[in-house]
């Protein structure tokens, strides 16, 4: 295998490193639509596959053209049936390389992909012998094409002009803005390298990128000076944070845990939260911080999506139910009172009643303080959109209702468990009723009390006297 080639799976070879630096520069590059040329050899099966490939690449902004010389992406869909098929592929690659070089001189990029049976049989040989080839994809892995093309584009500094429509609830984070009260968002990370098969974020938001430590700390200090007491660190994959900063413990790359410990020392910052996280990036140092940094609030949003390992695999989540539960056990050991939250998708392609029941069982086993649950929404261009076994919408609706009822029960139970407890509430504004003020518990619950507006912007001790499904009611504790 070529030394630069990273082996993704048996069916796929690529030269693109998994995490590609400079992705933000790429995001500023020319965003004109891209062109695609597919050369099909051999049988009807290949003709059909070429059409499918054009279909999955269209939402990434690729328009098919009938000449290869200036195409941004050239796919050779090869056939292995006749002798010397491989030699024919190499001579075609040679011709394409000449076009690729001419384009490079003009500042354009051509990605060359080899698909079909020759790719399957001789992929490693092609990557070794033909450095002009960017990726090789066998017939079993065409559903991975969007991911492979996005990774290749990132590696070459290109920008994909996707036609994914934004669906706010799925791919947007709250935006960081001027603080309106004592609680503010602070963006520290953007983008995603995980490529879950249902999700548009890796295409719409690009590669994982972490802001540098100094700029984050400067912004946090500024917020603290403006009266902010609670900061929520934001990122699509915030616990994968790896920003550059001053040398610390022998490295210039800071983890989220190191960032949190540092932010906690800023005068005025009394509470820190972060959202949202991926189970695979829940490192031991971050888990330890939950037990050791009092400013880090006892609330963790760690999406699992499904309680079935079969579905998690089809989602390309890269974690199992068991590894997720193990992570939660460690987090609970570090911080026993932590409130856990998650995201769930029901009706993912191939989800059976048993798979859904496994999700319900996982929820019963964990006991969440709250969760977001969504009906699977098919996003053309994502690998899951092409999967077999799309679930009937009525079946998915029914599952969603059952899951939401269970989560609501757990949320109520969690809220009720706080009755009689006394803790600090950060007051953020006026309540709905006369004389009422509204604040937030350490576990992200809304808390109403009768109290003076002068407390808004501050933390104050509150004893909880009652609950509703969505909020707590308390009374101020007057210290003697
Ligand atoms: N369909 C349904 N839910 C989705 N999410 C993301 N993409 C989809 C989709 N295509 C959900 C996931 C994710 C949350 C932000 O949105 O649960 O964690
Ligand atoms: Fe989307 Fe989150 Fe998966 Fe990234 S980790 S692909 S943002 S669901």
UniProtKB/TrEMBL annotation:
First-tier enzyme category under EC: transferase
TM region(s), chain numbering: none
Cofactors: [4Fe-4S] cluster
Gene3D superfamilies named among the record's database cross-references: Methylthiotransferase, N-terminal domain, tm_1862 like domain
EC number of this enzyme: 2.8.4.3
Residue span(s) of domain Radical SAM core: 178-413
CDD domains: Radical_SAM
PROSITE patterns named among the record's database cross-references: MTTASE_N, MTTASE_RADICAL, RADICAL_SAM, TRAM
Keyword Secreted: no
Cofactor binding annotation: Binds 2 [4Fe-4S] clusters. One cluster is coordinated with 3 cysteines and an exchangeable S-adenosyl-L-methionine.
Residues in TRAM domain copies: 416-478
Domain MTTase N-terminal: 34-154
Keyword line: 4Fe-4S, Cytoplasm, Iron, Iron-sulfur, Metal-binding, S-adenosyl-L-methionine, Transferase, tRNA processing
Single GO molecular function: tRNA-2-methylthio-N(6)-dimethylallyladenosine(37) synthase activity
Binding site for [4Fe-4S] cluster 1: 43, 79, 117
Binding site for [4Fe-4S] cluster 2: 192, 196, 199
Family: Belongs to the methylthiotransferase family. MiaB subfamily.
Stated role: Catalyzes the methylthiolation of N6-(dimethylallyl)adenosine (i(6)A), leading to the formation of 2-methylthio-N6-(dimethylallyl)adenosine (ms(2)i(6)A) at position 37 in tRNAs that read codons beginning with uridine.
Name this polypeptide is given: tRNA-2-methylthio-N(6)-dimethylallyladenosine synthase
